[in-house]
Amino acid sequence: MTSVIVDPDDHRIVWAGVEIDGVFPSLDGGDTWTHLETGLYDPDIHAVVIAATQPKRVYASTAREMFVSDNLGETWQPLGIREKWPLPYARGLMVKADDPGVLFAGCGETTTGEKGHVLRTTNFGETWEILPLPTQPNATVWGLATHPADANRIVAFSLFGEVYVSGDAGASWRKIAREFGEIRAAVWLPN
After folding, report:
1. E strand or H helix at 164, and its extent?
2. Which of 39, 50, 110, 131 could form a disulfide with 118 if both were Cys (CB 3.0 to 4.6 A apart)?
3. Closest to 161 in 3D by CA, of 188, 140, 190, 130
4. How far apart (Å, rounded) are the C-alpha atoms in residues 60 and 71?
5. Residue 22, helix vs strand vs coil
6. Confidence label for 189 from pLDDT (cuts 50, 70 and 90)
7. Are the beta carbons of 61 and 91 closer than 8 angstroms?
């Protein structure tokens, strides 16, 4: 399982992304699950997020594509990231806490790779920009974290232990001096 998210408006709706097996929503707090497939032709799910739009949008990233659903997973459409991203491997995914049209994504060459990028879209995934990190990440940018307490504070990390922090929604970044071993997930909490 690569992602588990809870709908912020209804805690009984839970979404799970499963590597090599697709997206599974539960409408009853996890008692039962449905396997979604219509239009989701790549089941290698790396991340799942919900954007609080009307209707809500669900995004799922895979090894080679990102998909969006405007009907709670009944159907999915690809965003065509191969033509829009500098590196093809889609990994981490995050919606800006105060703007559902802004998404951040991590990418790289492959699962490990030797470099990666943090990308941002301000128009629901139509176009993407590479954000200016202070150094080239040492591997695929594996994930991102944010919190509604400060929607402009974004944390991004590479698979091989580098952590980058932005306080201005990705306009500038600093690299944390301490490096770690492999990092697979991160959260930050307000003081």
Report:
1. strand 163-166
2. 131
3. 140
4. 13
5. strand
6. confident
7. yes
Query: In this predicted model, what pLDDT tens digit does every residue of 133-166 receive, in sequence order?
Result: 999 999 999 999 999 999 999 999 999 999 999 9
pLDDT at 65: 94
What is the pLDDT at residue 38? Answer: 85
Burial of 164 (0-12, 13-18, 19+ CB in 10 A): buried
pLDDT score, position 113: 85
Count the Cβ atoms, other than its own, within 10 Å of residue 40: 21
Query: In b/e form, how buried is each residue of 133-161, taking b as 16+ CB within 10 angstroms?
Result: beeebbbbbbbbbbeeeeeebbbbbbbbb
Rounded Cα gap, residues 162 and 14, in angstroms: 30
Residue 136 has what pLDDT?
A: 95
Nearest Cα to Cα of residue 141 among 168, 110, 179, 166: 110
The tokens for 44 are 């290698």
Which pairs count as long-range contacts for 150-155, CB under 8 Å and 24+ apart, including other chains?
150/190, 151/96, 151/97, 151/98, 151/99, 153/188, 154/94, 154/104, 155/186, 155/188
Task: Show the domains of the chain with their CATH numbers.
Answer: 1-52+72-78 (no CATH), 81-191 (2.120.10.30)
Residue 17: its pLDDT value, please? 95
